Amino acid sequence: MKILAIDTSCDDTSVAIVENGNNVLSSLLSSQVEFHKEFQGVVPEIAARKHLESIFYLVDQSLKESNLSLNDIDALAVTNRPGLIGSLLVGVGVAKGISFSTKKPLIAVDHIAAHIYSPHLTNDIEFPYIALVVSGGHTIITLVEAHGQYKVIGTTLDDAVGEAYDKVSKNLNLGYPGGPVIDKLAQSGEKNAIKYPIILLSGADEYNFSYSGLKTACIYQTDKYLQKGFEKTFENISLAFQISAIEPLYIKSKKYSDHSGIKNITLSGGVACNSYLRERFSNSTDFNTYLPQMKYTTDNAAMVGGLAYHIKDDIEYADNSLDCASRVLVKKYTLKKKKSALL
Length: 343
Known about the structure:
- The protein folds into 2 domains: 2-116 and 297-332, Nucleotidyltransferase, domain 5; 126-291, Nucleotidyltransferase, domain 5.
- 38% of the residues lie in helices and 18% in strands.
- It has helices at residues 33-36, 44-65, 85-102, 111-117, 161-171, 178-186, 212-220, 222-225, 234-260, 275-282, 302-311; strands at residues 2-7, 13-19, 23-30, 75-81, 106-110, 129-134, 139-146, 149-155, 264-268, 288-290.
- The chain has a 5-stranded mixed β-sheet, with helices on both faces.
- Helix 6 packs across helix 9 and helix 9 runs parallel beside helix 10.
C-alpha cells in the first residue's frame, strides 16, 4: 500500500511516499530556516506563505522521484494537529483537494504520534515501549502500547526543551536555530566551568519538566553558577546549559523505566539530533534506546505516511470537514476503534 503523506505543521514543508509503513520511496523537504533567521524564530505568516510556494512542487517531485502517478497512490495522509494553524491549513487543504479529485481515502495524523513512530522507519521495536518526544514545541514522555495507543506520562509545565535552546541562543546572540548552535559550541566547553541547577520536579509532577528556571539562570545568573578559576565563555555556557537541559530527560525516563519495568525507549523530535542527548541515551546500560535516522528527527512526512499505514484499519477516514488544531488533545491521546487518529 502506497501512501502520499504531507506535513506542514510548522516551518518545514515535507512530502513523502511510503509503502507498507516503512519503505520510503521518496521523502522531500523544503526548509524555511533562512527566511526566519533574521527574526530568530518562526513567523507564522511567513511560514504559511512559504508552504504555499513549495508544496505543489514537492508533491510533483515526490511522484517523479518514485516513478509514480496519483493513480498509483492508494491513500493520502496529512498532519492536521498540533502546529501553526496557518501552516496546517496549507497541508490539510492540499491533501483534501487531492483526496477529493482522485477519490483516494484521507488519513488524518497527529504530529506527535508521527514523531513517536519515526524510529520505526528504520528499527524493529517491541511493544510496549517508552517514547520521549523532544522538540521546539514539545517535551513528552509517553507509554506506547501499540501503534495509535498512547498514554502521556509527563510533559513540560512551561517551555519545551527545544524552545529553551532557542530562547537562550537568542538572548545570548548566538544564532538561530539555537539547538545546533549551542550543541556545536558545547563541544569546546569545559565540563566543570559552570554548574547550572538540574531541575527535577517531585510529587504529582515527578515525570513532568520545567525549563523556565534553567533558561533564566543561563541568561541572567551565569555569574552565580560560574566556578572559581574558569571563564564565562559561550562554549562553557553552552555545555553547562546542555547538561542541565538533557539530564532531566534521562533521569525521568530512567525513573519511569524502573517503575514500569519497560526497558525499550525511543527518542524522537528535532532535539533527538542533539549529540549529547543521543550519546547519553545510547551509552546507557539501563535500557535499550532506539533512535530515528537523523533525517527523520526533524519534521518530515515519511513518519506521517508510516504511521498512517498502521492505523488505517482502526480509524474513520477524514473528509472535507477535516479541521486543524494548534494543541495536543490529551483527552483523545488513546486511539480507539473508529475514532479520528488524533492524540
